[in-house]
Specification:
Elements: H1 8-28, H2 42-46, H3 58-69, H4 91-103, H5 114-131, E1 138-142, H6 145-160, H7 164-167, E2 173-178, H8 183-191, E3 199-202, H9 212-224, E4 228-235, H10 247-257, E5 260-264, H11 268-271, E6 289-292, H12 294-297, E7 305-309, H13 312-319, H14 349-385, E8 389-391, E9 399-404, H15 408-421, E10 427-431, E11 434-440, H16 448-463
Parallel strand pairs: 2-3, 2-4, 4-5, 5-6
Antiparallel strand pairs: 1-7, 6-7, 8-9, 9-11, 10-11
The structure holds pyridoxal-5'-phosphate.
The site of pyridoxal-5'-phosphate (PLP) has 15 residues, from helix 6.
Amino acid sequence: MRPQDMSPDEFRKFGYEVVDWIARYLDTTGEYRVVPEMQPGELVDALPKSAPVKGEPMEAILADFDKLIVPALNHWNHPRFHGYFSVSASGAGILGEMLAAAVNVNSMLWKSCPASVELEQVVMSWLRQWLGLPESFFGLIHDTASSSTLHAIGAARAAADPGLRTEGGAPGLVLYASEHAHSSVEKGALSLGMGQQNVRKIGVDAEYRMRPDLLSAAIAADREAGKKPFCVVSTVGTTSVTSIDPVKEIQAIAAREGLWHHVDAAYGGVAAMLPENRWMLEGAGEADSLVVNPHKWLFTPIDLSAFFCRRPEALREAYSLVPEYLASQENPRAVNLMDYRIPLGSRFRALKLWFVMRSFGYEKVCRIIRKHCAWARELAVEIAAHPQFEVVAPAPMSLVCFRMKGPDEPNRELLEQVNRSGVAFLSGNVLDGRFVLRLAIGNLGTTREDVFTTWEKVRTLASQA
Ligand SMILES: Cc1ncc(COP(=O)(O)O)c(C=O)c1O
């Protein structure tokens, strides 16, 4: 009995309604406009300025969800949501998320909830095996890749600067990443107080991969100038074009120079799970840390970022601080997650990943990812053959970057028109100084027909320009 909460009968009634809503939504997401037709501030204006003083009936809340919230949604679960990196909340993942909310445990210490702490180790070990990484990698779950990468850079700094914990950071540490690395790398360095002038953006080759020769040269120049190179981040699946940095060569440089090597495989790690794509992570087994986001391409509802680290002692050096009120038993099998990260508490994220990995299994994941990549290749060939368009970068994963030949402005307008149509959603980028359109395939509901419906919409709008 929880006298202050809704009764079990009420929960059942509204719970069934919500589950019905979700089942219907997942079945019909493709019938919605992908993005709403609304102006900024419309939802704020439609909702009361203050929270209610007296509680309201659930019927009213659910009715407003339908009437006000749903029309303001971008449907990331839509089969023609091709912007940024497209994602999926699978049925299995949603069920795991529901149960995690219900049990509402906190995974800060083993003794705060053995189930969530131990399941986190189990799913991270399973995922590590799917990625082909060695057992020496310790895994834990963060909310986002931005957090995972921040933790990696913080651990790298602690490993490089023995006085950090007591005296604060010594100046002069320098971090390296390709000019196409995600902004979260630079943001991580900024958050740690490193300063933008200590982040080197290394040039890329014709296929947008970090050039190891330029990396070596930059490290040498920094050493010459009295700086302290300490960390390099390579990317497997860059955000702009899904290019794949030469991880093995970068790892060799990192080993030679004594740098921490973090691999950002936030998106591309899932593609690298396929047997035919194993080469993408070659050398990553010797790196110091790696991030992959199941909430991007592994059908897990946002948020869930998987962070692997071969030097957990450096994470502890950077992040462990145990006040008496959090002290617990010393048992090597009782992992206390708070010792390896900034947040103390976290929710039971491992549950939804466990549901997803069990219900899909490795073979089905591979089949789906393989199809997404094949459709992207097929689409790239078709776009390249169209006289009005050009494909601007290779498509090694499931992202196609293209543009109408000619100036930027019509391309920007085309993107707006496609998105305004409600049929599909794409995002844009500037690559080599030119505006380009990005079409990512990654949603569980996407079919080949959806991909080509989007392309048809793009072509039709372009022909009317
Ligand atoms: C390569 C790469 N790294 C990191 C991120 C940041 O991901 P998150 O939103 O989980 O912080 C992204 C986001 O798209 C990405 O593409």
